[in-house]
Amino acid sequence: MAASLGPEIDVVAAGKGVHWQVDAQRGGRRVRIHVFDYGRDGFEYAHELHAGAARVGSGRTREERAVLEAVRAWVLESRALADVWLVAPFVDRRKRALSALAATLDRALEALGSSRRSQILPRHGGDDPFHELWLYAPDRSCRMDPDQGGIPFTLRWRSTDLARGVAPSPDDLARLVVEWLDPQARATALAGCFPFLSLAECARAYEEGRFLEWEWATLGRRAQDLESTLGRFHGSLIPLLAEREGPRGFYVFTSLTHLCFSRSSAYPFDTRGLPVVSPTTWDRGERYAVAVDGREVLTGDPETVADRLDTILLPGVGRSFQGSLEDVLQEEVNAALAARGARSRVAKVQIGEWFHRVAQLGDRAVVVSRSREPHEDWADLLEGLDGSYADAAHRGERLEPARRLNRLDVDGCARVIVEWLERS
Length: 424
What we know:
Elements: H1 2-5, E1 10-16, E2 19-26, E3 29-37, E4 43-51, E5 54-61, H2 64-76, H3 81-87, H4 93-111, E6 119-122, E7 131-137, E8 140-144, E9 151-157, E10 160-167, H5 170-180, H6 187-190, E11 197-199, H7 203-207, H8 211-223, H9 229-234, H10 238-242, H11 245-248, E12 251-255, E13 258-262, E14 275-279, E15 288-292, E16 295-300, H12 302-313, H13 325-339, E17 347-351, E18 354-361, E19 364-369, E20 377-382, H14 389-394, E21 403-408, H15 410-422
Antiparallel strand pairs: 1-2, 2-3, 3-4, 4-5, 6-7, 7-8, 8-9, 9-10, 10-11, 12-13, 13-14, 14-15, 15-16, 17-18, 18-19, 19-20, 20-21
């Protein structure tokens, strides 16, 4: 690069450990290049175009010549970003394809009389170069991708994929999405009306409210895979637990080799007072230790442990529910706000795959989050928002809190919301 671009551009290889990159810079413009080695398949070059501290474009290519063209156009010749696209089409290729699809889809939605509009979002927030296209409604969403042979999409209920497919055209997808975002719609019914729609295996059980039944049927299948963590360490135990009433009343998840019980189906999980099962041998978990709130209560073989878990989980340990501790926090804080006569309420805001619990009034907002420990919730206080919290997040703005308050209980969260939003 240094030889090809000349002395006007400062080219430096920098990094640490396995994380290295090449920076090509002149003045306030810079291109950072990450090189990925795929062995016999060759190299891939990931680019980030910077203007000052801001990343303004990104892309990936396997063509070395395209690398030089992008750097020459952006750094040496100081071209506008749109001109860089002409000489280095890989830059922002995905985001531009999503923008074109979003514009076409939004026109189709408008023609159907729908007020829904699509959102282009970084997959992991901030300035992540991997973008996705979304349409939202409360508890429902549709994620889409551009493709030359159609439009791949996924229909989601909360954080679960219920159906997917490849729409032949934006008009077909718009008609489906308008139907799906109606709160009364069912994916199982829509599959009969849209031939390009395929149901996920869990769709019928979820729409009939049989969440735990599906959970345990899935666990049984996963436990048969001896290459998986669940199968290797708990393959002997899961079938025994599935035969007992107590364990089947709760959700489970794995953390490293531990099998954890939870009242809630989604993270953050509700695990207080519920058992954690750990294998004490490395041969498909022939013996286990059971702990509750960090205190070991039993060790034994699979049959002994299954019997003991049945007695632990049957009496007085609460009930399971579909959702997460964040959903409970939202309900509890809103009840506390109502008791105070407050105007504010916490709403669930979806940003891509993630859900935030937000109360907002004017240019101020409070984002509340729940800890799995009692009285350890926290609240981020934001100010100076231009529009809604969701709009700012969708624009990719870094929403740095003015203050973060920790170790709050429900009443503390409600008090903070009132003081920050209504008495400021």
